[in-house]
Amino acid sequence: MHAANRYRTVPESKVIDFLVLAGWAHAGANEDVSKHAGNALQRSVELGVKYQLSKAGERLFDPVEVINQLKWSGRNGFDRFWIDHFVETERSRVSQFAGQDAGMFGPDALRFLRFEVSLIRSFDLSVFAPGTKVLLRLPLPYASNLTRDVQAVVYEAASCSFAVTKHAERLDIRLEVPRQQSIEIATRISFTTRGVEGLPAAGRLDTKQSEIYLREKEGLIHVSPAISARARSFVTRDDWKTASALWNFLLAEFTCGMIHYDQIPAQAPGDWVLDSSWYDCQLGAALFVSMCRSCGIPSRLLSGYLLYQFTPTFHYWAEAWIEGRGWVPFDFLCWDLSQGGQENRWRDYFRGQLDYRMLTQCMPLIFTGPMSTKFSPAWHMIASLAEDGVEICFQELGGRLIYRDRVAVLGSREP
């Protein structure tokens, strides 16, 4: 990514909170952990991360620049934060469902569980005049063969009346902007899931579905000549082996970090990834889908929330259709779990299997959709530990909130 002062707008304290989440989530936020995170940030400065000063003299950083520098430094032997803390935190998270030995659990081993999740979404509506009618949205898990009995209760965390329309994959919230020009909408969501979307003993997709999941252009999915040329060098007669070869290529040759999306060319996002050898979970999954489609393998992009008790965060992954197996997942969380593809014990942990997820989008047919609040071309995503869960904040470079999610897994039980 191209570094610039215009991105360096996040206070040091917020960046430290981000590093606490990334490297010490299970320890919880406390003074000692914050000190360790602050030391990691200072080491990144000594290794080249830049900052600027606020009017009050506080250091302002670009979290993308910080995280990417720490990962690069870890891969190249200059700093141990990524290896000792970030990677270990990721492994601790997934061990919640698979046991401490991280055995290669099979999807059939995941019994159905009923989860209860709290999702509170906050909006800054100051760009609208009071009384303006706006549409806001909150995602829901959508019912499928492996997610069922979805229930959602909406209650208001701010004094404002609104109307709610429930759809299969979302809640539409219509209201008039209140005088305080900010609002929180809180939901409590219950559903039963095994987390994996695959269909057992699946045969072929019908023609209509194949056409949908082989499209050459769909959002960040672009089957370009450069992508096709690279992907077809991995083609075999077995779609599972082809998809696995593409997976291995993307794990071995690329780095998973953070992205400034205003630097990604809209007409060639996958080409940018090929040239830069850098992706985040969304771009990595989109490139994998693009490469699969160029090899004639129907594939799709999905997103939702990881249901880990301490860190239930938003995430993207991919699925490819393999005849006889159905929709098979590929999740690039494995890049960090395997320390950049270097540890075979973790390398294929989410190749062909997933753990529990609250699946909310399956593009292009099931998605939350746009709201009255819009993202500017450049923005920051900042995450931190919150009470019982995680806070995920999307804000403009100048600091104005776009929206903030506070996500907590309240519990799980036998259905």
Describe the 3D structure.
The chain has 415 residues and is an alpha+beta fold. The protein folds into three domains: 5-98, no CATH class; 110-194 and 370-413, no CATH class; 198-353, Roll (C8orf32 fold). The chain is 29% helix and 30% strand. It has eleven helices and 20 strands. It has helices spanning 12-24, 31-46, 63-75, 81-98, 207-212, 225-231, 239-253, 269-276, 281-294, 333-337, 344-347, and strands spanning 10-11, 52-53, 59-61, 113-124, 133-139, 147-156, 163-166, 170-176, 182-193, 217-218, 221-222, 255-256, 278-279, 299-306, 314-322, 326-330, 357-362, 379-386, 389-396, 401-413. It has a six-stranded antiparallel sheet. Strands 16-15-14-17 form a four-stranded antiparallel sheet, covered by helices on one side. It has a three-stranded antiparallel sheet with strand order 1-3-2. Helix 1 (12-24) crosses helix 2 (31-46) and helix 7 runs antiparallel to helix 9. It is globular, with a radius of gyration of 21 Å. The mean pLDDT is 91.
Chart the SSEs and their pairings.
Blueprint: E1 10-11, H1 12-24, H2 31-46, E2 52-53, E3 59-61, H3 63-75, H4 81-98, E4 113-124, E5 133-139, E6 147-156, E7 163-166, E8 170-176, E9 182-193, H5 207-212, E10 217-218, E11 221-222, H6 225-231, H7 239-253, E12 255-256, H8 269-276, E13 278-279, H9 281-294, E14 299-306, E15 314-322, E16 326-330, H10 333-337, H11 344-347, E17 357-362, E18 379-386, E19 389-396, E20 401-413
Parallel strand pairs: 12-13
Antiparallel strand pairs: 1-3, 2-3, 4-9, 4-20, 5-8, 6-9, 7-8, 10-11, 14-15, 14-17, 15-16, 18-19, 19-20
Helix pairs in contact: 1-2, 2-3, 6-9, 7-9
